[in-house]
Structures
1.
Amino acid sequence: MLRVDEVIRERLSSRVALIDQISHYIVNAGGKRIRPRLVLLCSEALGFDGPERFELAAVVEFIHTATLLHDDVVDESALRRGRATANAAFGNAASVLVGDFLYSRAFQMMVGVNRLRVLEVLADATNVIAEGEVLQLMNMHDADLAVRDYLQVIRYKTAKLFEASARLGAVLAGADETIEALCADYGRSLGTAFQLVDDLLDYEGSSNELGKNVGDDLREGKPTLPLLLAMERAPPADRSLIRQAIEQGELQRLPEVLDIVRRTGALEATREAARGEAEQARAAASRLPASPARDALIDLCLRSVHRSS
Ligand code: GRG
């Protein structure tokens, strides 16, 4: 991971001062670097130790960071990784454009790896991520959203990059189709668990620990699983309060919404759904050849469910 950080820093450079400033601003704020970890662990679990793994690990982190820059503009978010978002600090236009820089730099780097399958995996993944964001936009303020439609959004917008990261480890190692599919299944389930917990933490976490503002999803009228489950379980008066909060994106009612979400057990049920996905990820990883890297992949399943940031 230290080498991945070096590659990230080397490849961030640009002749354009504002690009350097903003890209370093967001990358220096840290981030958990989970997606690059998946590239390294899957390739290592399958016996690959070439330098391309560091390059592709940096590629997926660049794509992730580009999506965050764009997402914070779309969501009008003010806090990310414990500091002002790039849009709050530098404005929307600069954030979108530096996101474009990171995204296109990622494609320059993956072309350098010179493997058509790598390009195919990442071109498909980024396209699906964008579809996920547009689907989510269409679902905004929809209090009648079906749980399966919510799940489709999170598989597209978040799990797809986890899936691609794990799959790339297998592609680099020249693994057969079955092993590649196992890695992809692992990444998809882990990413789904990860986003379920992300949505849970928006109601349960603390802004300090999370590094982003709690209640952002409600402010936007985003119908996530904690709200959908609370509506299924709540008595009619509470149900219409949540419906109104989703339809109008009301943050003033956050304390009441939080109370209902907690009382109905919707948070625990969301964590249970995450646990189910993490268990599927664990089952996929446990079919890979035994190694310390495989054990680390399994360990990530537990951590994804119990994380607080
Ligand atoms: C540029 C391909 C492209 C698409 C733009 C805006 C957009 C379309 C996609 C946004 C997708 C998105 C932000 C999904 C949420 C993913 C998520 C859970 C982010 C938080 O990830 P962490 O917790 O963040 O890994 P850190 O800060 O740890 O890196």
2.
Amino acid sequence: MRYVTRFAPSPTGPLHLGHAFSALTAFRRAQERNGKFLLRIEDGDTSRCRPEWEALIYADLRWLGITWPEPVLHITAREDIYASALQRLDEMGLIYPCSCTRRDIQNAMSAPQEGAPLHQDFGPDGIIYPGTCRTRSIESFKPGEAIRLDMAKAVDFLGDVNRLSWQETGPYETGTHHLDAAHLIHGVGDIVLARKEIGTAAYHLSVVLDDAAQGVTEAVRGADLMEATQIHRLLQALLDLPEIAYHHHRLNRDENGKRLAKRADAKAIAKFREEGLSPDEVKALIGL
Ligand code: GLU
């Protein structure tokens, strides 16, 4: 099977060195395997995405020597696909609407023992949802609410989920990984699949549908998404999507160990460009 990978930035700001590392790693892996490197614009968060940031993404990637086939996939064009996947999950009885705010979730976690220290379990998406809205049906969905996956039901639906596996091809925990039913239920919980409108897919749902639509065989991305992979493998199984491999690369940090992508003042690739650095000098800054 021909190797296909992608780089999937959100046009919410300029690309930084961490993005350059991710895009170049994916591009090189495709080249080395005589495969395909695709670009996907994750412009789902319309309040934060801007056409000028998208234009800058193209300019920065070209400057780094990266090329890709046109047309580029925009996830805003795929709302119907996300909506039909949600409909399918609903027919399977696995999703429910949720009106809880972060504050509601925190309150629900602390309510049982008033005054006791807050006990919270964290999963890949933050606090594990306590299940307040779990008995609601999709018919009661109101615009503005979220849609969650009932994780216990999803695990039950698939039967023996521990048989489901994927390959990690990156430098960490390389090899075969398996889903773990108990961990999915208690350590991940009822993740959000859509926000505000049915069709406005949240990341976990859109990423598996988009990787499948683009024929991706290996997702190359930062190690911060390692824990999310079990969610993606589960959704692939629920939606009959092909299993793909995952290559989680190291994250680029500054001298204090802070992730570049999260630093407000992290320097944009465009700034290095304006200062007259060459693409090779920028690549050297990230060890490439
Ligand atoms: N838009 C996501 C990000 O920039 C992509 C994650 C992925 O590659 O799966 O983090």
3.
Amino acid sequence: MYDCIIIGAGIAGAVAARKLAEEKGKQVLVLERRNHIGGNCYDERDEHGILIHNYGPHIFHTGMEDVFAYLSRFTEWHLFGHEVAAKVADGLIPVPFNLNTLEMVYGEKAGQLGKKLADTYGEGSRVPIMKLRESGDPDIREIAQYVYENIFLQYTMKQWGQKPEEISPEVTGRVPVLISRDNRYFQDKYQGVPKDGFTAMFERMLAHERITVRCGVDCRESLAFREDGIWFEGQPFEGDVIYTGALDELFDCRFGRLPYRSLDFRFEHYDTESYQGRSVVNYTVSEDFTRITEFKFLTGQQDADGTTIVKEYPFAYSGAEGEIPYYAILNDENEALYERYRGLVKGLERFHLLGRLAEYRYYNIDAMVKKAFELTEQM
Ligand code: FAD
Ligand code: UDP
């Protein structure tokens, strides 16, 4: 019946499904455990009619023309330059820390300090905080210390339960110090959200005569791994299987759980025009939550009555019912554990791991789309 089975209807699974059905003529079955498609990009209107992102705020951003063109087949866009401010000492300063932030913090001295930064690292460059801290110059070290203490230390402690120097530099490197006056959070050419939401984009992508989607189905009920290969619904399955879920779960966590950070999203609705007047404020020195997102300023929704916000409270994922593993914790020990699980499926030629969970990596949406292109082209 089916040539391919894809587990997970997030961006990785949805792009792979569409590619295989449309370009390779495959009959594709998508199994999704949740009762909806879209994975963590899923959005819907809340009880007040406001479009919210149920699994945290998602802004699509990319510099990859092929990725943007592909998704644009399934949606129009509400494009903007995404800006984030950090709440520091009762005021708001732009993040990433840039030459505008420098001026707000250092006043008159900023001109000379900015010149020093530009001379040292190059105008327009992106300097990771951990690199800035290594500088031998006392002025630069002072700026680095300010940024470390006011932008990174508390936020990272909340998000990861560890200090910036204890986590992978890849993670803090996502938000570098910018030697420019660009106030945007990302520097990609395209940034925004699908005009009528992510879920509508996924619906169009998965609407194809050779794609069948079954929601509310955990693949472990029907898929089994045996010495002689993969079995589906009690029969040997000869086709390709793409798995986008967590790899340890597929094997009942037999070597122990892969560690993840999770988030508790607390939504609040207010009958006022605006709560914070902008889409995202990071709480980098105070509060127990990391950031507040006010959705109408992200989605551009015009017909909203009142406003809905979400606060994000990080915690260590334990695998308990209802918890969601959001962030792989990248370090040597965890990657070695992941490799042990990967060893269990290495011999299965037609079994493919794709996605943020299945690959135990930190991917943005665009990188995921690109990986789905690459995998389906090889298949
Ligand atoms: P997912 O979206 O997690 O999809 C995997 C799917 O597989 C899920 O729907 C799951 O239910 C299903 N599944 C798992 N196990 C099974 C099973 N056993 N049987 C059946 N189905 C199963 N990226 C950006 O580019 N911009 C952003 O602004 C951004 N913000 C983010 C904010 C947060 C809080 C988080 C956590 C991530 C953010 N990301 C962002 C990253 C983005 O969410 C991911 O790149 C993307 O969702 C990964 O897609 P995926 O398909 O790999 O995984
Ligand atoms: N970060 C921080 N303060 C900020 C923004 C980010 O300390 O104001 C650190 C934090 O460790 C975070 C990492 O930089 O986990 C990456 O931030 P990003 O916004 O890329 O994380 P995302 O929410 O997209 O996963």
